[in-house]
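User: Can you help me understand a structure? I only have the sequence.
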Amino acid sequence: MSSLKLAARIERWPIAGGFTISRGAKTEAVVIVAEVSSRELKGSGIAGRGECVPYARYGETPEGTLGEILALEDAFHRGLDRQGLQERMKPGAARNAIDCALWDLEAKIANKRIWELLGQNAPRPLTTAYTISLGTPESMAEATTKAAHRPLLKVKLGGDGDEARIAAVRKAAPASELIVDANEAWTAASLERHLAACAEAGVTMIEQPLPAGQDEALARIRRPVPVCADESVHDRASLEGLRERYDAINIKLDKTGGLTEALAMAEAARALGFDLMVGCMVATSLAMAPAMIVAQGARVVDLDGPLLLARDRDGGLRYDGSTVYPPDAGLWG
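Assistant: Let's start by predicting it. Here is the structure, written out as tokens:
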């Protein structure tokens, strides 16, 4: 693959109903799909695909991300490869789409599945969390009642009123395992009160309670529930400084900049004693498929993005309730 052709496009996928977290609400998932093909195999129809979700929290926009990807067209024509990509681009959504497309292309050209290229066993089906969007205690209880048959629920919280929210969710789903995601909405002053409410509700993990860069309080208190870093962690370089504050890290390919760094980060995090969560943005199955590879060793899997859409792309992952199955070769890898 000495010379590659690179293309990319913006796609919009309606969300079923809506999706609300502490930073706001949205009604569609805006994704970027990158495609790479070998100029030496012109006319073969073989192309690799990767999908990313630009995230405004990190200063990313769909148009800006698309521009970052297309700016590398000449570099790929001159022979830029996957390893060179890691050095050329910073971690983030744009690199994720290209990196995953390169892995997909490599698997297709070799006529092997991605796990064979990695020397791994075939991936097994996994149980994914299902997200309950932020709302009033009453609306969240209503949504939870409809999802109470699912074994693992991820509850979006938002600060004031969270004690009532988590209590209402627990009452509506007495048998489900609960994890919560505050999306940086708590404060140092409210931290212990909210942790206690989550412990009372039997929550098993809390994601990113405090803002990234303002999470020092986590190292000074007793944590009755394990706390997982999300916005505070991106790639391997960010791990070491989190050891006293967090018990787990959330690996998202849009943060790590693709499967290459995500796999290396998972290994490094385990070596430092972190539990792993593998998460996602709201996106189609094309974005979930590479994360399935990393998620094989995770304590918590949160790959429900397609379940939140009004429809998924053709040939998407198979979901049987909360069980998600590995991708077919026609989708990715």
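Now, to help you interpret it: The chain has two domains: 4-118, 126-324. The first helix runs from residue 62 to 70. Let me know which part you'd like to focus on.
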